[in-house]
Design brief:
This protein is an all-alpha fold and about 280 residues long. The protein has 10 helices and 2 strands.
Amino acid sequence: MTTLAGLLAALALVVWAMASGGTVTAFFDPPSLLMVVGGTLAVVYARHPWPEFVAHLHAAADAFRPSTRRLEKLATLLPELGSITRKQGLLALEGEAAATSEAFLRQGLTLLADGTDEARLTAHLRLEMETIYKRNAAVISVWQAWVETAPAMGLVGTLIGLVQMLGNMSDPKAIGPAMALALLTTLYGVVLANVVAAPIVSKLRIASDEELEYLEAVLAGMQMISRNDNPRLIGEAMLARLGAPHAAGSTAASGSALAPGASTPVPQNSVDSARHPS
């Protein structure tokens, strides 16, 4: 939501600046717009495979939507799953897997229900995480290409306009359109790169980091459930990832250490084994 609000505010300021010195229509030049937007689109398409090109267009909407994945949910859900496992066994997770809409979590629960050992579970989920990371990085690289290419296409348009202007100095009527092309392509290129594409790149990077953090938490939870750890310890490990204060009580007296970002001690064995599986 902040991305959309910031984008609209920036565009509004640009339009206001245009209108304050005359008419906004003076800044609208179809050839210049086609040169920058169409040229950038063509270059970006030439630099990336078709699947990545299509994916980056769909991913643009993700920059304007808040993430539905929350570590807070895991701090409640994973201890509950641990309790179910202790009471009913790993096979009971099969129903929980079918009930969740989160693909990565469902995959982990299915592996646990199938009796997959911790080493294979970790390897399988790590591979899936690597695939997700590469997919996100590919999408971000396409949008980064917009940031790099748009100002260059604006510069190309500026040079074309200057050549046209210098080649028609004897015709005053031709100087105006050529000068408009020279100046407006630079303006369009800078706005497209820095007002539109750059914020999308930043938000997609943040979303990718948050997704990987979420996946790491799911993996740690699956590992702890696989070892049949105490549900309370699972909850504390998830809260430590949030940096949320929680009652450690007796855990502080039994060889505890602070997890990164945690404000209270979490048992060393549960956190270390969750983050450094054997």
